[in-house]
Amino acid sequence: MELDVMTVTGLIASVALLAGFALLTLGKLTAEHYTYQWLNAIGAGFLAYSAFVTEPINMGVFLTEVIWSLIGFYGIFKIWRKRRAAETPARVN
């Protein structure tokens, strides 16, 4: 069975988003885990791509998924910044 690019894209998006949601719901991950944020960012990014290349473009899904992906990347940045601050010794003057 040969899968086309759109099918693979959709499968990656679905697996990533559902895995993130399932692991969050089961208490295996929290919003403070890189894994959760990466699953959301990647899944939403692939769905945004899928909505963008579909003719005609599905603008509602595209915008939703772009925003969802950006929120995921913000979560990744927030975790990185928090961990970096915890590892950096405080300056004493």
* Major sheet details: none
Q: Any idea what the shape is?
A: elongated
- Category by helix and strand content: mainly alpha
Helix content: over 70%
Radius of gyration: 17 Å
Number of domain units: 1
Strand element count: 0
> What's the order of the H and E elements?
HHH
Distance between the termini: 67 Å
Number of helices: 3
Q: Pick out the low-confidence regions.
A: none
Q: Averaging pLDDT over every residue, what do you get?
A: 92
Strand content: under 5%
Keywords: Membrane, Transmembrane, Transmembrane helix
Protein name: Transporter
Organism: Corynebacterium frankenforstense DSM 45800
Domain CBU-0592-like: 7-83
Describe the 3D structure.
This is Transporter. Keywords: Membrane, Transmembrane, Transmembrane helix. The chain crosses the membrane at residues 6-27, 34-53, 59-77. It comes from Corynebacterium frankenforstense DSM 45800. Residues 7-83 form the CBU-0592-like domain. There is one protein chain. By secondary structure, the chain is mainly alpha-helical. It has one domain. Helix content is 75%, strand content 0%. The chain contains three helices and no strands. The longest helix is centred in the last third of the chain and has 29 residues, at 59-87. The mean pLDDT is 92.
